[in-house]
Structures are given as C-alpha cells and as structure tokens.
Amino acid sequence: ATDPDPDTFERTLAADERVEPRDWMPDAYRATLVRQIAQHAHSEIIGMQPEANWITRAPSLRRKAILIAKVQDEAGHGLYLYGAAETLGVAREDLLDALHEGRQRYSSIFNYPTLTWADVGAIGWLVDGAAITNQVPLCRCSYGPYARAMVRICKEESFHQRQGYELLLALAKGTAAQRAMAQDAVDRWWWPSLMMFGPPDAESPHTRQSMAWKIKRHSNDELRQRFVDICVPQAETLGLTLPDPALRWNEERGHFDHGPIDWAEFKAVLRGAGPCNEQRIGQRRRAHAEGAWVREAAAAYARKQRDRRTA
Ligand code: 3HC
C-alpha cells in the first residue's frame, strides 16, 4: 500500500468513491472487510450443502437442472468473494483454515435442515430473498472489489429467489399435501431468515463503525424491516401464511409490525448449537481433505507451466 494517507481515505469515503486495494486504508477498515467478506464467502460455500441435499431427489429434470445451476452459482459466489478478500492481503488457504477451526463464521441460516423438497423453494424465496435485500446495498460498499463482486452476485441471486418463489407457487397451487408441505417449509424458514440480518442494532458491535466506513449502508434492523415489508404481500400471493400472528400493517410507521425474534435461538446457533452446525462444518472439513489432491495437482500443473515459460 502507499504511504499512510488518512486525508485521501476520508475524502474518498466522503465523496462516496471507492477505496481500491492499492490505496492506503486504516488497519481496522481492512480487518473489518476481511472479516465480513471472508464470512460472506464461507456462507456461500457452506450454503451449498442444504441445497445439494435435494439434487438427487428433485421431482423433475427441470427442477434438478435449476437446482444444480443454483448450487454451482453459490460455489462461484464463494470464489468471487475469496478473490475479493485476497485483494486485502490475506490468503484463501488461511481463511478456509479459520473457517474449519471455528475462528471465522458462516451465516446462521445454513445450520437448519432441509427436510422436504418444499425447503428448496422456501430457501430460494426467503433465504435468497433476504440475501438480496442485504446485498443490493453492498453494491455501494466503499471497498471497490467487494462492491463489484456484489453486482454480479445480486444478478444471480435474483434468479435464485425467482426460482424458489415459482417452486413454492407450484406447490401452493397443487394438491392439499403439496400446499401443506409448502406451508410447513415456510413455517420453519421464516424466523431463521429474519435472523440472517444480524442482531438488533442495539446489540450490534459492528454496525456503527461499518456504516461510518460506508461498508454497511443500512442497519440490520432497517434491512430486516425492508425484507418483512417485501415478503408479506408475496406470501399473500402464494396463499401461504407467515408464522407470526403479530404481523400487521402499521399505517403510522408505513411498515409491517412483527412479533419478537427468538434471539436466544440466534445466539445458540452462533455458539454452534444449531440443528446442523456439527454436520455442516464436518462435511466442509471432509470436503476440504478430500479435495487436497485437486489443489496439489493444480499447483503442480501451475509450477510446470511456469517452468516451461521460464525454461
Ligand atoms: N450468522 C452468523 N453470524 C452473524 C450473523 C448471522 N446471520 N449475523 C451477525 N453475525 C455475527 C457477525 O459476524 C458478528 O460476529 P463477528 O464479529 O465474530 O464477525 C456478530 O454476529 C455481530 O453482528 P454485527 O451485526 O455487529 O456484525 P456485522 O456488522 O458484520 O453484520 C451481517 C452482520 C449483516 C451479516 C454483515 O456481516 C453482512 O452484511 N455480511 C455480508 C452478507 C453475508 O454475509 N450474507 C450471508 C448470507 S448467506 C448468503 O448470502 C448466501 C446466499 O446464497 C443465500
């Protein structure tokens, strides 16, 4: 990086311009971005597991093809994001070690099981929908490589959300058993999807600083509220109910009021006590070990190519 230049850094932020990898930046800004981008990448990679669980059991070739494309997209999102993190001077291997050793996180949402085919629809509609609500503002993040990775990721997330919604609509308009399966999935995925946005603003240690650095453009509660306001009419169109009897339009606020979120459950999942934490991280570690030969072969091939060029 160039010489310490806080004035330029502050001016760049004030002008809503982008901080680029070679610009000077405060160490804490760099550390916050490594933390958030790495954990975002880990979420994408771990997120492949609950969805992949239904690839071999998709009810039609069309649904199977869509699901395979979606899981493949998630892997790609992980790679873009590890690439963005590496522009901050960290090595992908170290980030993966941190994930495997529990020193870095992935999104709480992926610690829940996918029990029926309808879960694939609920994940697309709710989880990818929440991801879009959270990630569109990140396209305006002050750090260039992260903001640019988000632009492409958001486009692909929109397809993920659309296919999930359409899958649920097919079930909700289907037989009574299909409708019941869709309703059961929405009942199980609604509250964990609200938790994806993070703890309440009053209990968020990072929000204030992240907003000052224009990494976070809206607070956790603001985006959560935006997501609830989007989902209520969509649930009505689906003919499904959201599992919150306190949900009601508040004319004064111009938003939907909703019931209390179970933050004890959120904290338990973050502590590793969610339904699938052990399974997800165990599968991740196994996949990493089984993939060692691929990494070694790719590194050997790259060395050969380099030696040929310099021979
Ligand atoms: N799951 C796990 N950890 C969470 C969390 C969640 N849903 N929400 C918050 N946390 C953690 C934070 O990482 C932080 O812990 P740390 O200091 O050890 O990192 C702590 O709880 C306090 O939370 P804060 O709100 O203060 O932290 P942030 O300012 O980082 O805000 C965030 C949390 C809103 C998730 C923010 O990090 C963010 O916007 N990240 C980028 C988006 C992202 O990671 N999305 C993952 C969703 S899955 C996905 O996108 C895949 C798609 O295909 C569905």
UniProtKB/TrEMBL annotation:
Query: What Pfam families does UniProt report for this protein, alphabetically?
Result: PaaA_PaaC
The superkingdom of the source organism is Bacteria
The record's annotation in InterPro entries points to: Aromatic_CoA_ox/epox (IPR052703), Ferritin-like (IPR012347), Ferritin-like_SF (IPR009078), PaaA (IPR011881), PaaA_PaaC (IPR007814)
Return the NCBIfam families for the record: PA_CoA_Oxy1
Task: Spell out the protein name for this chain.
Answer: 1,2-phenylacetyl-CoA epoxidase subunit PaaA
Q: What is the lineage of its organism?
A: Bacteria, Bacillati, Actinomycetota, Actinomycetes, Kitasatosporales
From the UniProt record, report the name of the gene that encodes this protein. Answer: paaA
